[in-house]
Amino acid sequence: MPLRFSILVLTLFSLVLCETAASAAERPNILWISCEDISPDLRCYGDEYAVSPNIDRLASQGVRYTRAFSHSGVCAPTRSGIITGMYPISIGTHNMRCKGVPPAEVRCFSEYLRAAGYYCTNNVKTDYQFNPPLTAWDVSSNKAHWRDRPKDQPFFAVINITTSHESQIRDPRKLTQQLVAKLKPEQRHDPAKATLPKYYPDTPLVRRDWANYHDNITAMDGQVGEILKQLEEDGLADDTIVWFWGDHGRGLPRGKRWIYDSGLQIPLIIRVPEKWRDQVLPGAAENLAPGTVNDELVAFVDFAPTMLSLAGVPILKHIQGQAFLGEQKAEPRRYIFAARDRMDERYDLIRAVRDKRFKYIHNQMTYIPYSQNIWYMNLMPTMQEMRRHHAEGKLVGPQELYFRQVKPAEELYDTEADPEELNNLAADPKYAAKLAELRTELQKWRDEVGDVGLIPEPEFDEMKRPGGKYETTAAPLFYPEGFDKATQSTRVAIHAGTSGSSIAYRLDANLKQPAHLQGRKRADWKLYSKPVAVPPGQRLYAKACRIGFKDSKVAMYSPETGVFQSRPLRSHWRDVLKKSDLLAQLSELKSLDETDPATIAKYRKALDSEHGSVRYWAVVGLHRYSDGGDEIQQAVRTHLEDPAPVVRVAAAQAVADWGDPESGVPLLAKLLQHRQDSMRLYAAIALGELGEKARPALPEIKRALKDKFKYVMRVCEYTLADLETEQQPR
């Protein structure tokens, strides 16, 4: 099986090469300019407060997309979907700062472009929820640039600008300070003239954050102008498709991290030179004319297949996005989808679907308030102002929505009439048909992609890496296939022994710096896609890479190379799930009517499930939604010794919350020392939610302030602060 799969991968790359046999002159260059943490808060999108002349000019030269959306409100899950064309909830990269192990077929789409002859560079952010394989980029560094490519080779270049990142609003780095300081007086934003969202308190600090955010966008706009100027100077503007986009919504409260439009909707501008328009949009080139506005729904998972379509590379069946440009363009979308899971140190479980007008949100942890303490988010002055005014009872109307302690199970918004998504229509009978439609579409999507969000992270971590151990990709092996007398070269094929791995190779000659790269660093590894000609006196080196695995050791070619060998792998978590009814059980259990007596009965029955994940949600359901009577408490108490640690956490928290901290808290304190990071995080959160009842675990909580996993440390810092506050004299 591993050999067959590796040959399939090589055949796939061969197919890519055959299908893209056109000369470099017949393929466009592609430049991505991405920025961070901005909504469509640009003058070209109608924001009169904004100052964005360079991006506005780009929009006047290209197409401005008005309904482009991320599938997540935060960077890492977003970028894992962009680079793979797959939804994070499908490939297990949905929790912030996790280390995913995607299925074997998943690749960084840049590999396919490299195999098709593109020079691919990334400057510099990756943040894919997995370490990018060596094979993903020709160069990935803060020096990476299209200018380093071999002569006449088409390029795909990514330049990521961080100036508009959330952190730069409250604590700008030196570079951002310098860029903003260079803005002309008329480019600076007067806080007094800002139009704030209705859900913010109107205070000087909030206005200052809003003005800083827009100043940073203007500074970023200048950087965009410099990049486009370089393209012009190199004489490449007429041969390069330019994309400008942001990675999710604005880095302010109720924007970033959330899956309201303020967290999902992004600016997307694409400029296609006239000579490429017929190829980019066959039969409809006029829709790429300068100044065009496109209102089709576009999802981030569509970026990867669209890139393949533009480059003439076949879109593989496993890719979940769809092309919106190129010869493989699909029919326009009817819906976009999004998910929120763990954000930094706090868990939540929210899913959303949106058509062109209506947004439906399903909250599956209604007992978790919107206003969870997230350390990084709490550093923002606007967030601090919101919390201060809430504590002082000064918030009014929509400003108080964020501090509701219980979320509705369903939210429905008319985004045309209510763009800030403040008026929940889910209970309005006039919208019952739309509610039912979107609810059905959301569940259909979750079933189709295999949403793993309901698997508690400790359980999922163990599925990904039993015992917490990374698998190592098997080293590649070499097979001489022939000898060319004219060049005295041996043609050598390279095979990978691990399914899903790619091969990087180099010759001794690759180590020599080409003239056009003198004084610059570059990667000397090439992506293997066809047999390599090895000249006399040269050695051939190769290593195998698979996403979520450790790279293999470097192997060297010699005539004495042995026969092909492979090493059996552990069963991949997705294969395990395919043979199981776990996702179906979880979906059925986590119905909308969580407080209905029939659902409580389902929770009771689910306590006997063979799956730890199902038992976990059964305990949580009985804790959160039942009356906690004696019979239920006794049923939950039996799970204090459950074989799944995550179930023991849920049972211990429930028992302690119901009035028996002596039985629950010591167990949580013990699990706060578990080997698994996510397990300790679950225990820390449970102790924090118990408040004063967690005091007997104070020594363990204090020790956890030095935990190697920063999220455990942050939760314990909040818990300790709350306990110390409780001790203050009143």
Provide structural commentary.
The chain starts with a helix and ends with a helix. It has 730 residues and is of the alpha/beta class. The radius of gyration is 27 Å and the shape is globular. Strands 1, 2, 3, 4, 5, 6, 7, 8 and 9 form a 9-stranded mixed sheet that branches. The model is unreliable at 1-11, 18-22 and 518-522 (pLDDT under 50). The protein has 25 helices and 20 strands. It has 4 domains: 29-340, 3-Layer(aba) Sandwich (Alkaline Phosphatase, subunit A); 360-467, no CATH class; 468-578, Immunoglobulin-like; 580-727, Leucine-rich Repeat Variant (Alpha Horseshoe).
Secondary structure class reads alpha/beta
The poorly predicted ranges are: 1-11, 18-22, 518-522
Separate helix tally: 25
- Share in β-strands: 5-15%
State the oligomer: single chain
Number of domains: 4
The mean pLDDT is: 94
Count the E strands. Answer: 20
- The value of Rg in angstroms is 27 Å
CATH-assigned fold name of the largest domain: Alkaline Phosphatase, subunit A
What would you call the shape? globular
Outline:
The protein is α/β, with parallel strands linked by helices and 730 residues long. The chain contains 25 helices and 20 strands. Helices cover 35% and strands 14% of the residues.
